Amino acid sequence: MEYLGYAASVFIGITIGLLGTGSGTLTLPVLVYLFYKDSVAAGAYALFIGGFNSLFASLSYFKDKLVDFKIAAFFGIPAAVSAFLTRAYIIPLIPKEIVRFDNFTLTKGIMFMAIFAVLLILAALSMLNKLKISFNSFPNNKNAANQFLIIQGVIVGFLTSLVGAGGGFLVVPALVVISKLPMKKAIGTGLVIVAAKSLFGFLGESSETLIDWLFISKVCFFVLIGVVIGVALSKRIDGQKLKPVFGWFILFLGVLIFIKEIFMKM
Prior knowledge:
The protein has 266 residues and is mostly helical. It contains 10 helices and 2 strands; from the N terminus they run ααααββαααααα. The protein has helices at residues 2-19, 23-34, 39-63, 69-93, 108-127, 142-163, 168-178, 183-203, 213-234, 239-263; strands at 97-100, 105-107. It starts with a helix and ends with a helix.
């Protein structure tokens, strides 16, 4: 299973190189189901792995001047602070056993995986263009837009840091709709935001979580191999044409995780 996990890490990198997304949506399931990591610790690992790879991927966008640092600050700083506080103070307060029914106990780990499954389903619907927000639904008021970005940052930082997701599928559409950024600039700016949010969330991890740096380094190494392959393939394959396929895969994965964590443990 360990070798399969490293192979899956390469696949994660390929999706990043081809589609510019996928690290957060795939990393946690790989860590939990292939490397058998505890879901809480896996969330911390996923934050670092996703943040590191998002930072690496953002370099080419920065070089091409496709990063809006002002907007990144309005969204990214609240998201980073929210992620740090969530990992440092909120998660340790959640009991290991939340509620117990006759044949089912809702644990912290099960709750996190269920939340993650819901985020996966939302990500899939976004990729399949099933979640649409009117470009005219938000006012062209910069102050209102910036205030809304701050609120969005806090919410995204909280939700995604709970489970270790990157949240790019939430960030990029918000930048396009609210800040009216072109798609490529929204992706570049989103990568910076996800990197900052994820890495700050990781820094807030409780000292009770033992970090296996050798393991993290191995996974990051294989993901980066995949990124290089994905970037090379992107010159021959239109990643946008593959996005619906990846969306259906993520939808299936989200439903499968939800069924496994909730219904199969009753």
